[in-house]
Design brief:
- The chain is built from four helices and eleven strands, in the order ααββββββααβββββ.
- The chain has 220 residues and is an alpha+beta fold.
- The protein has an eleven-stranded antiparallel β-sheet with strand order 6-5-4-3-2-1-11-10-9-8-7.
- The longest helix is centred in the first third of the chain and has 19 residues.
- The chain starts with a helix and ends in a 20-residue tail after the last strand.
- 33% of the residues are buried.
C-alpha cells in the first residue's frame, strides 16, 4: 500500500528539514583559525571512540517528525562516510550518503536533492577524522550507562544540531551502542531516529550505497 499523497508531502518536508539540520556545514570554509579545543570530558571521549569503532552497522529504524508522523525502515552504515536509509514499502524515498554528500531520491516525483555532508553534525557518525569533541556538549542523564551528546556549532545556530544517545553495551564496538538521535533545524523542527536490532560487522553488498537516478541519467 502506498503512502497517501498528503502524508507523503509532509514526510518530504520533514526529511528535507532533518537533512538540512544534519548536512549544513558546522565549520565555514572561510572561518578564521580557532583556538585549541578544551580537553574533552571522558564520557565524550568514550562516545566518540565507540562511534569510530564501528566498521559496518545495520539496524531497524523508526523515524518520528515533530507532528508525530512515523516511518520505519532499515539503516545501513559503513565507515568512513557511507549511510543508507531504506524506507518501508510504499514510501518512494531513499536517502544515501556516498561519503561526501547526502542525497535524497524521490522516485515518485523523480527528484534528486543533495546536501554537503563534510564537517556536518552527521559527520559524528560517519567521519573518523572529525573532531567531534570540539563541538560536543555532554547532557546530564543521571544514569551512568547512558550518554547524551549534543553536537552543534554555537557560532552558527542556523545550522541546527544533532543529539545522540548511546547506551552502555559491552558487546557493541567501544562498549557503547548508538540508540537514537534527534536532529533539530534552525526553526526547531525536530526529527527523531531510534535504532533497534543493531548488527555490527555485517558483510555488505558492494552496491548497497548506490542508487538509480529517477531522472533517467543512470546509476550513481
Amino acid at each position: 500500500m502506498r503512502t497517501p499523497a498528503r502524508r507523503l508531502l509532509a514526510i518530504r518536508s520533514a526529511l528535507a528539514a532533518a537533512l538540512f539540520a544534519l548536512a549544513a556545514p558546522v565549520v565555514s570554509a572561510s572561518a578564521a583559525p580557532e583556538a585549541p579545543a578544551p580537553a574533552a570530558n571522558p564520557q565524550i571521549e568514550q562516545a566518540v571512540a565507540a562511534l569510530r569503532a564501528i566498521t559496518t552497522l545495520q539496524a531497524d529504524f523508526a523515524q518520528t517528525d515533530r507532528n508525530g508522523q512515523r516511518l520505519s525502515g532499515v539503516l545501513t552504515l559503513q565507515r568512513p562516510g557511507k549511510i543508507r536509509f531504506q524506507y518501508q514499502p510504499g514510501v518512494p524515498l531513499l536517502i544515501v550518503s556516498d561519503g561526501s554528500a547526502l542525497t535524497m531520491i524521490d522516485y515518485e516525483v523523480r527528484q534528486v536533492q543533495r546536501w554537503p555532508i563534510r564537517n556536518s553534525p552527521l559527520g559524528a557518525l560517519l567521519d573518523p577524522n572529525k573532531d567531534v569533541a570540539r563541538y560536543a556538549t555532554l547532557n546530564p542523564t543521571g544514569h551512568p550507562e547512558v550518554i547524551s551528546l549534543d553536537v552543534r556549532d554555537p557560532r552558527h545556530p542556523e545550522y541546527g544540531s544533532i543529539t545522540m544517545i548511546l547506551l552502555k553495551k559491552p558487546s557493541a564496538p567501544g562498549g557503547w551502542e548508538l540508540n537514537s538521535w534527534v536532529a533539530l533545524d534552525s526553526q526547531n523542527r525536530r526529527t527523531t531516529i531510534r535504532l533497534s536490532n543493531q548488527r555490527y560487522g555485517v558483510a555488505l553488498p558492494a552496491n548497497i550505497f548506490r542508487w538509480n537516478d529517477p531522472r533517467g541519467i543512470g546509476r550513481k
